[in-house]
Amino acid sequence: MVWSEGGCSRLRDACLRGVAGAGPEVISTHPIKRIEVRDDLAEDRWPATIPAVAQLMRDGMDLPPGVTFIVGENGSGKSTLIEGIADAVGLPLEGGDRQSDIRTIEESSALGPHLVVHRGSHASQGFFLRAESMQGWITKMAELGSTRAWLHNVSHGESYLAMALQFMRKPGIYLLDEPESALSFASVLALMGHFDEVTRETGAQVVCATHSPVLCALPGATILELSDRGFAETDWADLDLVRAHRLFFEDPMRQLRHVVRSGHPSDAHPSEMD
User: Fold this and answer.
1) How are beta strands 222-227 and 115-119 bridged, if at all?
2) What's the CA gap between 87 and 206, in Å, rounded?
């Protein structure tokens, strides 16, 4: 793997120093093989009214080994699914692992208590990493005297990437909710490389909700696209988010003219020129 920025490479090497020579652990199966919904979730109430959750209730969802990306528009159920899985396997909703004992959110997720998780090897190990609450988690660790308090002394993106590289290095289930929101382009590439490495060498499993067409381009990954029809495994090139980004970069003004005003008098609507 070639890293596009030296800083990302040095950070990655520093975070993984001391474990590189441990060698891969070969396991026969992956942590979470399938999730289903118990029949105690009301079909006419949220989150069952989300099409992806409704399909999950009918069909269940198989999760293959390696990396699975969950993509879709806002409100399609990505975070609901990720939070539900985290809750069902015993990971704190605000992020972290079972050993951290740092829980600032007491309630359960709306979906998690209703999930049945079919587990394989190392399903009891894992980490939930979410950008929106990570800083609060780091602050809480610092208050408790954790040795990871140094994460407060680097940028938001650097701390997020450092946590991913440090915690995601053993067999287990790793859940991430829109990690690209904290990361630069180069850091996204670094994270992709680590996804590939940890799943191949340890048998770890990654399930990641994302809006990034770059992140979900990881070769060999499974992509589940959520829509108003439910969810379906989809090739990268056929994703709506890939099509949308491709169209935008081909001709930005084709879309921008519908949402912004250029400021030039000739572009004003006649009713605005009185």
Assistant:
1) unpaired
2) 16
Distance CA 176, CA 207 (A): 6
Q: Supply the pTM of this predicted model.
A: 0.80
Whichever domain contains 75, its CATH number is: 3.40.50.300
Measured distance CA(117)–CA(149) in Å, rounded = 34
Cβ atoms of 123 and 204 within 8 Å: the answer is: no
Q: For residue 270, what pLDDT is reported?
A: 46
176 contacts: CB under 8 Å, gap ≥ 6: 82, 128, 129, 130, 164, 206, 207, 208, 209, 210
Strand pairing class (230-233; 222-227): antiparallel
In a domain, 133, yes or no: yes
Tell how far CA 266 is from the center of its chain: 44
Q: Which among 28, 26, 30, 29 is positioned nearest to 202, based on CA atoms?
A: 26
Give the 3-state secondary structure of 70-114: EEECCCCCHHHHHHHHHHHCCCCCCCECCCCCCCCCCCCCCCHHH
Low-confidence ranges of the chain (pLDDT < 50): 1-28, 264-266, 268-274
Cβ atoms 171, 202 nearer than 8 A = yes
- Sequence-ordered alpha helix ranges (H) in the chain: 6-16, 51-59, 78-88, 134-143, 156-167, 185-202, 240-250, 252-256
Is 31 in contact with 119 (CB distance < 8 Å)? Answer: yes
Does 258 fall in a domain? no
56 falls within a domain: yes
Here the tokens at position 249 are 């970069």
Residue-wise pLDDT tens digits, 104-156: 555 679 999 999 999 988 777 899 988 666 666 666 666 666 556 556 566 66
Within a domain: 259: no
Q: Hey, what are 116's tokens?
A: 């049945």
Range of the domain at 66: 6-236
